[in-house]
Amino acid sequence: MSFIDRHLGPRESDRDFMLKTVGFETLDELVDTVVPDSIRLEDDLDLPAPLSESEAQAKLAEYAAQNTVMNQMIGAGYYDSITPAVIRRNILENPGWYTSYTPYQPEISQGRLEALLNFQNVVMELTGLEIANASLLDESTAVAEAAVMMHRANKKVKNGFFAIDSRCLPQTLSVVRGRAEALGIDFVVTDFADGLPEGDLYGVVLSYPAHDGEIRDIKPLIDQAHERNALVTVAADLLALTLLKSPGELGADVAVGNTQRFGLPLWYGGPHAAYMAVHKGMERNLPGRLVGVSTDTAGKPAYRLALQTREQHIRREKATSNICTAQALLAIAAGAYAVYHGPEGLRAIANRLHDNAARVAAAGVEAGLKLVHQNFFDTVAFDTEGKADQLVAAALKAGINIRKINDDRISISVGESHGDDVLAALVEALGGELGETDEYGIAEEFLRTDEFMQHPVFHTYRSETAMMRYLRRLSDKDLALDRTMIPLGSCTMKLNAAAEMEPISWPEFATIHPLAPADQAKGWKALIDELSTWLVAITGYDAISLQPNSGASGEYAGLRAIRAYHKANGDDQRTVVLIPMSAHGTNAASAALAGLSVAGVATAEDGSIDVDDLKLKIEKYGDTVAGIMITYPSTHGVFEEQVVEVCQLVHDAGGQVYVDGANLNAQMGLAQPGKFGGDVSHLNLHKTFSIPHGGGGPGVGPVAVRQHLEKYLPGNGYEADAEGKLAKAPLPISQAMFGSAGVLPISWMYIAMTGAEGLKSSSEYAILNANYIAHELNELFPVLYTGDHGLVAHECILDLRQLTAESGVTAEDVCKRLIDFGFHAPTLAFPVPGTLMVEPTESENLEELDRFIEAMRTIHAEIKEVSAGTVALEESVLRNAPHTADVLTADTWNRPYTRAQAAYPVSALRLAKYFPSVGRIDGAGGDRHLVCECPPLEAFDLEAK
Predict the structure, then answer these.
(1) Counting Cβ atoms within 10 Å, is residue 700 exposed (0-12), middle (13-18) or buried (19+)?
(2) Are residues 697 and 775 located together in one domain of the fold?
(3) Distances (CA, A) of 716 to 147, 735, 829
(4) Which of 129, 313, 629, 840 is least surrounded by CB atoms within 10 angstroms?
(5) Is there a domain that residue 407 lies in?
(6) Which of 756, 786, 813 is a domain's end point?
(7) CATH number for position 550
(8) Residue 925: Cβ within 10 Å count
(9) Domain-located, residue 894
């Protein structure tokens, strides 16, 4: 059986039955009716013939063999670390963790929320600040977010500029420069040797330690900044903070950085979880997600995402950032690393790294090199008197990569796995001999004296048995794709096949440093080049960048390309982006981040773009129109017939067309946005191309463009000159040139194994599955929008508003009741309040679709009991859902419905039943009394209350 046969859910007989149900004889007939002729492809996609699973892995192994595995001591933001096998196998390679969705339905996400709360608490404890988010994309973008946040949060210095440390990572300086220039924010880059620059300073960014390893006394600078009413961000090495005074103790307002060295592979640059922590009082300005603690209906502590009104899909262009996907899976792994090692284990690792770095320093000095800094953590810098190239080559010959800073200076970053054999080979290459030393200890004035990570969770799970069971206990609380369909509209929760996932753990991919010499990464280049070629062929564009490490980053990159294109043509005034009112909120937030203004375009009654209103807006904004952002098929789940006309109207007005690729899963092999009018699109590899969501990340959002925009794709931040300028490309948007490269083999495998016909079949079956659900539920839950023939694309919107008006039962009540059936809820209240958007994807079989349909029909009958007055709403099974095992097995039961109706509303649940660990959570109450640290164990003991 081919891979595509395994990937698709319905069998041939199921397909025929479903087609007959929706009124068609063949799949071609259905698709021809759904997809407009005006955008249909005439030829097959130009892709190689599909490979079997074993053939694809063999081909990928050939690429892997072209990479050279070395001892990586380059540093510069990426460090050698050890992923404990218990974490690799039970988190990173466990579908219970990597197939889960962002925890917007917290009752079925308690395991991953607890794991993310652990991550937050590690960050809070080590940074010495009161609030931390649940991860950001990478360190460089985290610094950029902090710079913008300080601008927004500083009420005492309204305008002014910020100053950033020249000894931040080179990539960080480039990313921050690009972000600030897009927003028109003034800044200076300085080493602070002469103190703070003069002028109206609203913020300062300091590196701690510096990128070359030096530990400096930054407290005087922080104090000076505060005296001038400036806020201070410290970019800190989290592992170093186990030994060094925390940013909070030093007086910082914000701390940012990366957690890659908490057990995450190098992965050629990502994905890795960045962090941000702030003082209490700044939490409403904090970008990204924040896990907090509230209570459920029984008064039991329960985790949920807090302050969700900050999310970009609600605040749109007024959002704190455009972050949608973060790095949840990697944050979970990093937090688990901290749980497994505990504070004493982390401190022991840090001490060993520093001691080994000191031994390298002593050996280098003995060999005649000049030590640049006396105080360092794990990174040693030497002045070599012009011998940098010679020493880098000597280390290379010994199987070790070190960093050349310039012709005279090198640096060496000692990693977790580097033992005496590696260190001895290194210092021999430097001309010295490895020995012991008591020199170069960190000065006492820099050392941390307070305790950290004192919660029992960081002191309990030391044996592998205990850790394995803890991780299993957490995953058992969740619903992921390994248990159930996740029918989330706009999110495409399809199969993440095991054969696709396996290669990301191969050392030949996982251990390559993103700044390694090009001849050591030939396999990575071959894979990236081939994947890029395939994605260009699929989308109909001319070029692509894989750098964006989330869908929203892809939006931002695409809009920056449009802005740069207009500027290059002398059209600086083109700053208005037209965005349909139904668009995903990241569209508007990304536009604002790119320094563009947003003008809304009305939605017609059928859910399509109101073309008349579009014409009015084009006339109103004239030559200030930069372009339009559209989602296709539309956010309403329909192929809009007039999409070609919309694109032409905007082009005629001198604008560019951005086609959001969130719904590309309905187009593969059927249509190409680069051919029907798009100038630029981002793609979601974590949706359409099988990279898993991982509880809210990793994501990859490549940006594809027509030829005239190619020169404006993001560049390599590490190659910027002292002024942050790049010779051949614009500034980067992410820290690593290829973003989250480590997960690209997943998409390569998916395309290699499906081929042109397989991708087309994926789209066709996604359309079939959605129309089957729409047909079967339409009579009870009207489908809000359809095309001219009463059909939908790959998702449908179920309208509950009339049912709510009759009964008081809300769409949220239905979401919570679905948990009792063992289902993750559809997308709630987007794009229309009071509705549910359902996307089954092509990977779900008929049995699972029918199980969902049965659940929704049963819920409809329960709603009718309420509307008929048979059952009071507040006492109904719907309003009291979901039902925990604690509630169902309690000694007393005084509800008007039976325990059986609550737990087993359909008979199939008696064969396999999921019980949520908490009841319905009080989100609003949690926001009023924000708690975002791990609660004490006694808080869970209801008997003690």
Answers:
(1) buried
(2) no
(3) 21, 8, 39
(4) 313
(5) no
(6) 756
(7) 3.40.640.10
(8) 10
(9) yes
- The answer to whether 177 and 185 have CB atoms below 8 angstroms apart is no
| Tokens representing residue 461 in the block | 């799970």
Amino acid 707 reads Q
The rounded distance, in Å, linking the Cα atoms of 65 and 67 is: 5
Q: For the segment 8-52, what is each residue's pLDDT rounded down to a tens digit?
A: 999 999 999 999 999 999 999 999 999 999 999 989 999 999 999
The length of the chain is 945
Q: Which residue has the tokens 């769409």?
A: 811
H/E/C letters for each residue in 238-283? CCHHHCECCHHHHCCCEEEEECCCCCCCCHHHCCCCEEEEECCCCH
What are the helix (H) ranges across 367-490? Answer: 388-397, 420-430, 457-460, 464-476
d(CA 211, CA 846): 55
What is the rounded CA–CA span in Å between residue 818 and residue 809?
A: 13
Report if residue 389 sits inside a domain: no
Measured distance CA(902)–CA(813) in Å, rounded = 14
Residue 581: CB atoms within 10 Å: 15
Given 297, 314, 337, the domain boundary residue is: 337
Amino acid residing at 114: E
Q: Is the pLDDT of residue 469 over 50?
A: yes
* Domain annotation covers residue 84: no
Per residue in 646-662, pLDDT (tens digit) is 999 999 999 999 999 99
pLDDT at 255: 98
C-alpha 557/C-alpha 682 separation (Å) is 8
Q: Give the separation between CA 914 and CA 246, rounded to whole angstroms.
A: 43
Return the exposure string of 404-426: e unless at least 16 CB atoms fall within 10 Å of the residue's CB, then b. bbeeebbbbbbbbebeeebbbbb
Which residues are CB-contacts of 483 (< 8 A; sequence separation ≥ 6)?
Answer: 96, 822, 914
CA distance 276 to 290: 10
pLDDT digit string, tens, across residues 722-773:
555 665 678 999 999 999 999 999 999 999 999 999 999 999 999 999 999 9
pLDDT at residue 945 in the model: 46
